[in-house]
Amino acid sequence: MIDGLKTLENEARRDLQRLNWPAANWVLPTNAPDGKHALHVLVVGGGLCGQAAAFALMREGVRNLRIVERKAAGLEGPWATFARMDTLRSPKHLTGPDLGVPSLTFRAWYEAQHGADGWQALYKIPRMDWAEYLLWVRLVLELPIENLTEVTALELDGRFVRASLQGLSGTETLIARKVVLALGRDGSGAPRWPQFDSFDPGGEHAKARVFHSADDIDFESLKGRRLGILGAGASGFDNAGTALEAGAAQVTMFARRPYLPQVNKSKWTSFPGFLHGFYSLDDARRWRLFTYIFSEQVPPPFESVLRCEKYAGFSVRTGAPWSDIAADSEGVTVTTPKGTHRFDAVIVATGFDVDMMERAEVSAFREHAMVWADRVSEAEARDHPEESRFPYLGDAFQLQEKVKGAAPGIGNVHVFNWGCTMSHGALAGDIPGLAIGADRLVEGVVRDLFVADSDRHFEALLAHEEEELKPTGLYVPKERR
To answer: Which residues contact 419 (CB under 8 A, 6 or more apart)?
Structure first.
């Protein structure tokens, strides 16, 4: 169905032309402190959220931008790396990366290759099909993503943000008016590692036998081996399924709860009223909603459980948190309140922490960024330590000063990743809210760029001399007016 996909590409490009994509640049050139023209927007991250942000910015005429991505082309986001599910969790009909252009939807892409009957027969979106689809959208949009380029530091410089980059050609410093941090699931923190007395993550044996679910794991090496997994969420089951399919002889999963969560409360939030309206709630109501959702936790998808249950070597031990792990040359000893267990290797599937203090990119000003702990009582922050570490964001996902005047320009850094969830809901990462999030982000960025230059735009208005009546008999030359 290559011809069908090529036909769709042509259709999508015609649709974009009809929508005047990309819009003409209207943002006025601005001199940076070094005398050079400042970049208007730097988008950090070329995955799902970075693509959507860049698409929306160019749609609104913000053309002087750069999109940098630290991974190689095709490895953006988790899809081809540590996301190990067979299919996406979301229903197949949800849209997002297309930003409302029908010919850019996953359905259009899939039908172009498999026909309408193929779409009807599809249950959920295969993970690698989704990865290929995102690359196709990037191709059609001709997004100028610079792969293998990493932002190592950001510094506030008055009205600007100074960014240090490391890429294939070496180091570079650029100055931007706006920075969008589209860094993915760990974009406001880092992989979560529980603390164990006998575990040194930098130790030789630990590196060879103790993995985080976000690591690059050679599952073929686990063939015939015994594997322990801490955590019974989606990633735990996905890693278990991948190991069992690779031939692992035994996979034992451990959960601290007496039984797994049974209801995914976060699914309830995927309706327009919530996605559009959540940010407008007061702090108390926003805090109440998401601390409740997070405390309920999310059950693994039933498909992921069924994937594992068909193997005789798979088991789940509930009410058995790990109290210690010790790796040696022969394997890993896991200690629980109910006894000890011996494995050839273990995977810690405990997700990601949200903690701005973990992010090297914002180290120069992260202590000045307001977090939710600054908006709730000490008791609430103590009862919900992770939620309290989420950044407290403005209406366009921008960081806020903890103390007024302490970090001028901090609002030019926009957090368009999982860290936005306590402030805006899951608008940056989860597919249902992606388009709403991208629109909201770009509306604020465009507003700020215009307002900052409003006096210069007024001068442009005064200089505007397009003489509408010149072709008519009612035209009056300028010198006679």
So the answer is: 187, 188, 189, 354, 356, 390, 391, 393
Residue 413, SS3?
strand
Rounded CA separation 211/12 (Å): 42
Q: Are 350 and 230 in contact (CB under 8 A)?
A: yes
d(CA 227, CA 244): 9
The tokens for 363 are 């180290």
Please, are residues 453 and 159 in contact by the beta-carbon 8 Å criterion? no
Reference 420, options 262, 184, 160, 195; nearest CA is 184
Q: What domains does the chain contain, in order, with CATH numbers? A: 2-188+353-456 (3.50.50.60), 193-262+299-350 (3.50.50.60)
Which two structure tokens, joined as six digits, stand for 328?
């040696």
Do residues 54 and 39 lie in contact, with contact meaning Cβ atoms separated by under 8 Å?
no
Rounded Cα distance between 248 and 224, Å, is: 5
Residue 1 predicted with pLDDT over 70: no
Contact at 8 Å (CB) between 161 and 179?
yes
The phi and psi torsions of 69 (rounded to 5 degrees) equal -140, 130
Q: What is the pLDDT of residue 202?
A: 80
Closest CA to 391 of 412, 365, 366, 360: 366
3-state secondary structure of 24: coil
**Mean of the pLDDT values across residues 452-478?**
94
Give 144-171 pLDDT, tens digit per residue.
999 999 999 999 998 999 999 999 889 9
* pLDDT tens track for 225-250: 999 999 999 999 999 999 999 999 99
Q: Write phi, then psi, for 317 (nearest 5 degrees).
A: -110, 110
Spatial distance between the Cα atoms of 379 and 381, rounded to a whole number of angstroms: 5
> Which pLDDT score, from 0 to 100, does residue 440 have?
98
Question: What band does 51 get if pLDDT is binned at 50, 70 and 90?
Answer: very high
